[in-house]
Design goal:
This protein has helices at residues 16-20, 27-35, 42-51, 80-83, 91-103, 140-155, 168-177, 211-214, 221-237, and strands at 61-62, 68-72, 123-127, 162-166, 194-196, 202-206. It is an alpha/beta fold. α6 crosses α7. Iron/sulfur cluster is lined by residues 20, 23-26, 29-30, 57, 129-131, 142, 145-146, 149.
């Protein structure tokens, strides 16, 4: 039985959400996110003319009563940074949303833009950083700067049962966001692994849904389905299935 949300700590109460939209704490990332407006690929030009270019911190997207939080690395320069919604408008998003749709947690298998009518049930999508970093490589300081926003998102989820970290950086960011008073488990990133955090909340790992992993077969749709099944089980009965990992 869940007792308390381990991300809910008093020092950030009420603070981070208000400042996200105008946050400029990381000068390098601010320059990068805004500069991408001048490098829109031809295939996105028409869309950008109609919808504009976001180029600002990207807020979490999904169900405010979510039991599952999915944590990515950061917005893609011409994905979420262009469209303004997490995992929207790029190949990583196509893989992620298709998986969530197969599971019945998303109304559509694709996420094209903030006005496409996509709805999510029970799931919140967020990231370790809210601004796109060059080469997807944020510095340690930048990750730390953005931690209050991640902690704020997770700490507000009163029904949180499972956090799914996409990749090692997200795994480490989630652990760092756990309130120090609640204790942090010593667990390293491993695809398909599950570790119990304080308060009965579970941390599950998956390879990131990036093209580098999905185009090379490192992460297949079947593997991702297995991870979502694990999340579903942990969210429902509160423990991994007896025969985990499958196969
Ligand atoms: S990455 Fe996070 S902390 Fe840094 S400027 Fe963007 S929103 Fe602010």
């Amino acid at each position: 039985m869940r007792q308390s949300n381990p991300f809910c700590v008093s020092e950030i109460a009420g603070a981070p959400g208000a400042g996200l939209a105008v946050c400029r704490r990381c000068p390098r990332l601010v320059a990068w996110r805004e500069g991408q407006a001048g490098h829109v690929p031809a295939r996105f030009l028409e869309w950008t003319c109609t919808h504009g270019f976001w180029g600002a911190p990207v807020p979490a997207f999904g169900d405010c009563l979510a039991w599952l939080a999915i944590v990515g690395l950061a917005p893609a320069a011409q994905g979420a940074n262009r469209t303004g919604r997490m995992f929207t408008g790029d190949r990583s998003g196509e893989f992620l949303w298709a998986g969530l749709h197969r599971r019945g947690w998303a109304s559509h298998a694709r996420s094209e833009g903030r006005d496409d009518g996509l709805e999510v049930a029970g799931v919140l999508i967020t990231a370790a950083l809210r601004c796109a970093p060059p080469a997807n490589r944020p510095s340690a300081v930048e990750v730390k700067n953005c931690r209050p926003y991640l902690r704020g998102d997770l700490g507000r989820l009163v029904n949180l049962r499972v956090v799914l970290a996409l990749g090692r950086l997200a795994h480490d960011a989630v652990l760092a966001a756990v309130g120090a008073a609640t204790g942090r488990p010593r667990t390293r990133f491993r695809h398909g692994a599950a570790a119990e955090l304080a308060g009965g909340v579970w941390l599950v790992d998956s390879y990131h849904v990036s093209q580098q992993n999905t185009f090379t077969g490192r992460l297949t749709a079947a593997m991702f389905d297995d991870v979502l099944t694990l999340c579903d089980t942990l969210g429902g009965v509160g423990r991994p299935p007896a025969a985990w990992p499958p196969g």
